[in-house]
UniProtKB/TrEMBL annotation:
It is an enzyme of class 2 (transferase). It holds the Pfam family PhoR. The keyword Nucleotide-binding applies. This is Phosphate regulon sensor protein PhoR. The chain crosses the membrane at residues 16-41. NCBIfam families: phoR_proteo (TIGR02966). Member of the two-component regulatory system PhoR/PhoB involved in the phosphate regulon genes expression. PhoR may function as a membrane-associated protein kinase that phosphorylates PhoB in response to environmental signals. It is found in: Cell membrane. CDD domains: HisKA (cd00082). The gene is phoR. GO terms for biological process: cellular response to phosphate starvation; phosphate ion transport. GO terms for molecular function: ATP binding; phosphoprotein phosphatase activity; phosphorelay sensor kinase activity.
Length: 427
């Protein structure tokens, strides 16, 4: 039986005994009975009244008083309340601790509500944007007026960050990223990446300049080698060395070209206007190049959705298509099958190249898009590879908000699929 009922019954039994004793003593049985009933009802009503006052939080009304069911109920409710208060105190302490920690973070943090109004900001944001307490509820667009940021904010696509070369008149490079949380609220994190960005820029410039400087002397050398090759008798001892010199200088030229393409991909200047790129006709032309490159050693299947085009940059996209097709040819032994597909499904447009070639074991797959990463260096060299093809593909795809998905089984073949976002499809 519940503790409340037991307490009530104990009270009732004790008080009934007392009433019986009084009745026996006075011989007023009826009067005692009605008197007791009246007393019992009045007591219940008074307890309910006190309970209600106490629940409402009326000052100076405390509970639980006395015994009985209401005393027990009051005790249980106050125990529950104490445990909730303890929990709330703990939560408050934790959130205070969290806020204090966020105050010390060097990145500027601003939380925004569903209407993009400022709700809270940390010390770094306060310093960087000279924010005052009165700026809460101000719209973030009125504080950060940079058009690239406004476009990013309105786009609703916050997987990537936006990099700005100056912000509110501060001539430094900033990385801004929005993190959506709880019912369209957002957290804006602004990082000062000026030093990091400059270092990366120096590295990019160095690679681009070095490649550029190497290009001219190499062209001269290659030209002389070709002239010397033409002037040799077929049985001359110089035929083989000259041929090797020619192959190696061509390889160096390919590496330099790939390095230049890669640094162009990485530099901001490449971004012009995106155009509609007719992928299917481009692939049809590439089918001829692929057949020539394969020299009849492979069978090809091209499955192309001719009504589907892509919004993007034509030359870089051509480089993606050719890189993946030529890899399939280079890493598929004679007699293999290569299938090239250009199609669309619910997720968006896809370009996919499947081959029945040598395949790649799992441990290499995640590293294939690193510069100069090759599973088999000798084979890559022999087939004219530079180790930069997939790095270029990855960069170009990133520029198109696309992803490269690689699946492969050693000895069975590989599948390279480019997943473009739905917004890039043109019909
Ligand atoms: P490479 O110029 O060496 O081909 P890539 O960047 O194009 O450089 O490719 C990196 C490595 O990925 C290659 O060296 C090769 O080992 C592997 N690879 C790429 N495509 C394929 C494929 N279709 N089948 C098997 N291995 C491949």
């Amino acid at each position: 039986m519940s503790k409340g009922i037991t307490r009530e019954l104990t009270w009732v039994i004790t008080s009934v005994w007392l009433a019986l004793f009084i009745a026996w003593m006075t011989d007023w049985w009826m009067a005692t009975f009605f008197g007791y009933l009246l007393f019992y009802i009045a007591r219940q009503l008074y307890s309910i009244y006190r309970f209600e006052l106490w629940m409402k939080g009326t000052p100076n009304v405390s509970y639980p008083p006395g015994s009985g069911l209401w005393g027990e109920l009051g005790y249980l409710v106050s125990r529950k309340q104490r445990s909730l208060e303890k929990h709330a105190d703990l939560q408050f302490y934790k959130s205070e601790q969290f806020l204090a920690a966020s105050m010390t973070i060097p990145d500027a943090i601003i939380s925004l509500n569903e209407s993009n109004q400022i709700e809270w900001f940390n010390n770094s944001a306060k310093k960087l944007f000279k924010l005052k307490h009165s700026d809460t509820h101000r719209k973030i667009e009125n504080l950060l007026r940079h058009p690239d940021f406004i476009q990013y904010l309105k786009s609703g696509r916050y997987e990537k960050s936006v990099i700005l070369s100056s912000l509110n008149g501060i001539p430094r490079v900033f990385n801004l990223k929005l993190f959506p949380y709880f019912q369209e609220h957002k957290l804006l994190i602004v990082k000062d990446i000026h030093e990091l960005y400059n270092l990366a820029q120096i590295r990019r410039d160095f690679i681009a300049n070095a490649s550029h400087e190497l290009r001219t002397p190499l062209t001269v050398l290659n030209g002389y080698i070709e002239v010397m090759m033409d002037g040799q008798e077929p049985d001359s001892m110089w035929v083989k060395p000259l041929e090797q010199m020619h192959n190696q200088s061509e390889r160096m030229q390919s590496i330099i070209n790939d390095l230049l393409t890669l640094s162009a991909m990485e530099s901001e200047t490449l971004v012009g206007k995106e155009k509609t790129v007719p992928i299917a006709p481009i692939l049809k032309k590439m089918e001829q190049d692929a057949t020539q490159m394969s020299q009849g050693k492979h069978s090809f299947r091209f499955e192309l959705d001719e009504s589907l085009a892509l919004k993007g940059y034509e030359e870089p996209l051509k480089s993606v298509l050719m890189n993946l097709i030529s890899n399939a040819i280079r890493y598929t032994p004679e007699g293999g099958q290569i299938t090239v597909r250009w199609y669309e499904d619910a997720k968006g447009p896809h370009f996919q190249v499947d081959d029945t070639g040598i395949g790649i074991s799992q441990e290499h797959i995640s590293r294939l898009t690193e510069r100069f990463y090759r599973v088999d260096t000798a084979r890559s060299r022999d087939t004219g590879g530079t180790g930069l093809g997939l790095a270029i593909v990855k960069h170009i795809l990133e520029r198109h908000d696309a992803k490269l998905v690689i699946k492969s089984q050693l000895g069975k073949g590989s599948s390279f699929r480019c997943d473009f976002p739905r917004s890039k499809a043109v019909h």
